[in-house]
Every structure is written in C-alpha cells, then in structure tokens.
Amino acid sequence: MHIGIIGAGAAAVALLDALALADDKPSGVTVFDGAPALWRGRPYQPDLDAVRVNAPPPIMSVRAGDPGHYQRWLANREVADYLDEGLGQPLVPRAVYGEYLEDTARDAIARLGLAGCPVRVVRSAVTGFSRDERAVLHTASGHHVPVDRAVLAVGSGGPRDHYGLTGTPGYVNEPYPLARTVAGLPADHHLAVIGSGLTAVDIAVTLAANGHTGPITLLSRSGQLPFVQQRPVRLDPVHLTPGAVRELAAEHGELPFSHLVSLMRTELAALGQDFDTLAAEITGSEDPVIRLRRQLDAVDAPHHGRRLLAMVIRVVGPTAWPLLAERDREMLRTGHFRTINSLSSPMVPHNARIVLRLLDSGQLRLRAGVTKIEARSGGGFTVYDARNWSADTVFNAVNPPAYTTPSETQPLVGALLAAGAAEPHPAGGLRAEPGTRRAMVGGTPDPSWHVLGNLAADSMFIATNPPGLAAEAAGLVRGLFGA
C-alpha cells in the first residue's frame, strides 16, 4: 500500500507519527506540499520571539495517546525566559514549536525508512488526479504519482481579502511570518488590523516588542477580544466523558446537545460549583477592556467552569461532535463558533497583559462595526465604521472560516467532486466516514480517499487542535490496516 499525503502541516506530522508507531506499515509514502516551510503549517514558521504559542505544553502534543510527548521534547530546550507567570507554564516562540513538528516528522520518516517504508517529499501542490488501476496524483510541477490511498491533510489557507485590497501598497493580507511583514514598517504609522482575535493579538504584541509608537486599531464587527486563559488545574471529569457521550448517543440514536449541557451541569455540581456562573461569563455583555482586566485578575480564580469547558472541547469534543444531531451542529457552527473557538484557545496571560497595557496607554484601540476599507489615491486607507478615519497600513488578521478549502487545494477538490470521488459537506469541506476518515459518496466510503483535519467538517469542530488531529490520524491509520 502506497500512501499519498496532500499537505505537510501539523495534520501530516501527526499522520506520519501514527504510521511510524503502527504495527503494520505501508510500502511507501509520498508527501506533497508547495509551502516554503515543511511540517510547520502557516502558524509555526520561523518568526520573531514575540510570536508565542497560545497554549501550554500539556495540550500541544501531536502524538496520539501521549500528552507528554511535546513536554519531553521541550525539556531539552532552554525555556526559562518564556515562562508565563499567569499560567506557570513556558510559552515558547511559535518557531520553537515548529521545530518540534519538524523533529517529529523527521523522526517518523527515519523510523518508517528503517521499517522498509521510504518517504518521499514532492515540493509541489496536487492540482488534480486520474484513475488507472490506482489513483494518480498530478502536481503543479508536472509530477504524476500513483498511490493506493490518498489523504487530504490540508489546513484552511491564508486570510481572505474581503475588501479587495490585495496589491495595494501598505496592505498585508498574510501577516505571518511577522518577522517579514513588520520589517521596515515606519514606527509612527497608524496600523489598522482587520480582526480582534488571536492573530490580531499576535500583531499588536509583536509591534509593541519592536518599539512601534504609532496607533494600532483592531477592527471587527463585534469589537471583542478573546477570553483570557486561566492557570491550569488538574480536573478529572467523571460525568462528562467520551464514554458517557457514547452511551447517550447509543441510547437516543444521536447525542442531544441538551444532554451535553446537563452533563456539564452535573460535572460542575460535583465540584461544588454552579453552571449559571459559567453561562453568565460566556454570554454576558461587557465592555471588552473591563472584561480583559477582570479576566486577568481571575487567572487564579477558584471557579473551574471555563477550565472544565476548555478541557471538554478538546478531550470530549472529538467524540461528541460526530454524534450530535446535524441541527445541533449547524446551531453551533453558525451561532457560536467564535465563542467556542475562543474558549478552546484563549489568549494567554502574557499577551493579555501587553494588550491591556497598550489599551490603557491609548496606543491600542478597539473599534466595532467596520463596514468598508478603501485605499486612498494618495496612499493610505479610509476605514468606515461609525465615522470615516484614516490608517497608513492595514493588516488582515481574519482567519478563513472553518472547513474552508485553501485556494491551492481548490483545483484538486473540484476534480474530486467532478469525478464523484468525494461529496461536499453542507458546512464546507468533504463528507467522511467517522474513524477511518474515508471520503463518503452517496453514503458509501470511497476506498482511495481520506480526509484529515480542516476539510473534515463532520469530524472536528475545532480543526487546529494538535491532540485532536493526532487522535484523528491514529483512527485513520487503524482504518487503513483494518485494526
């Protein structure tokens, strides 16, 4: 069995690692990716030290069933300078985490090679395919590679240019790596950042580290900042567990979302805490600066609601998501994705303190209700919200919606759909069989194609969670070899 892996980011690393650990091995693997930095994906390229990982080491392992894998790797590095005092955990530069992904991939490739499974890397995107006795993958560089199984392991790609500014001097559509995009930026420029999530926070923190003196304005429809992460504590749920949600789904034929909420209430009650406090924290309307200050003061708060919910999203979510009724999944996708994503990946206290300092000084501003941004003929930009105002430079920090097909993968996905080898999911991405991740067409799995990560809308609600990707990769490998 020869396997083709399309994409060389975190999902591909998790898949290579799972293949290297499996008892059975393929006869060979070919990885396809035209990106400049293999294995790192978009967020973990070489960059400035100010651009840090937004999560503590215990929840960043890319090896299934081994949450300490990244921590053990990190133990051999000097990380004392990167301690986040609020979390009591080291938050290293993202480039360091990229090194971890690279090392994990290289180690897996070496182990596969020793087991008689050579791994080849083709530095080009797959743009189409044909069928002979096997699937033949066609690349932009003219390669034609026959494979027995192909795995779509692509991310969501770069930001979308909603205001048609690409090519305009002073507009940056892809902010990463920030070492490149902030280089040469005049220190007094007024910088407008489209978005107010974690990417926007990265930009603001990096500018502060680089000595930027000009105004920085974060633009969004809501004007809200991400939640602030709390210091981790050990939690061992006994009611809201993967086994419990599987039992509920078996009992009801599907998993009612209301039952998940009831399990959360029960879990909090067992800790001597109430659900209503958590609900008020999530749904309450509050000035974003006041909320940021309050949440920073509550990093060590004794109420475990947000800690428990973040754990549940990561640990129980991959089991619960495919079992939910489609109406509930649609409700969560369309009405609550931003909130749940922020709860799952909150802003770390280190960055939150810098953001609060910038807000208090007046250098950083939050503006809601942006409707349009236009380039001015003499240079710079006009931003339209409640009033019209000017900015010198505009950075795009709005990530693509979940399950979006990256532009470089669209020709291949179009070819798959046209050939009837895949079927679109209503939420985006492609339908896939739970567990094996085989592409589904008319309710029947295709034996050749698998979907892992961002394009698997029916598999994962949060597709950027490394342990979740690792668990999906391990299930895919078990399916490949009939385990």
What's the pLDDT, averaged over the residues?
91
Largest sheet: 6 strands, mixed
Proportion of residues in extended strands: 15-25%
Helix content: 25-40%
Strand line-up of the largest beta sheet? 5-2-1-9-19-18
Structure summarized in a few sentences:
By secondary structure, the chain is α/β, with parallel strands linked by helices. It is 35% helix and 17% strand.
Question: Could you characterize what this model shows?
Answer:
- The protein is of the alpha/beta class and 483 residues long.
- The chain is 35% helix and 17% strand.
- The protein has 15 helices and 19 strands.
- Strand 18 (438-441) and strand 19 (444-451) form a beta hairpin.
Indicate the topology:
Elements: E1 2-6, H1 10-21, E2 28-32, H2 69-74, E3 83-84, E4 89-90, H3 94-114, E5 119-122, E6 126-131, E7 135-139, E8 144-147, E9 149-152, E10 171-172, H4 178-181, E11 191-194, H5 198-209, E12 216-220, H6 242-252, H7 257-270, H8 275-283, H9 288-297, H10 305-315, H11 317-320, H12 326-344, H13 349-361, E13 364-368, E14 372-375, E15 381-384, E16 388-391, E17 393-396, H14 410-419, E18 438-441, E19 444-451, H15 466-480
Parallel strand pairs: 1-2, 1-9, 2-5, 9-19, 10-17, 11-12, 11-17, 12-13
Antiparallel strand pairs: 3-4, 6-7, 7-8, 14-15, 15-16, 18-19
List keywords for this structure.
35% helix, 19 strands, 483 residues, 6-stranded mixed β-sheet, 5-stranded parallel β-sheet
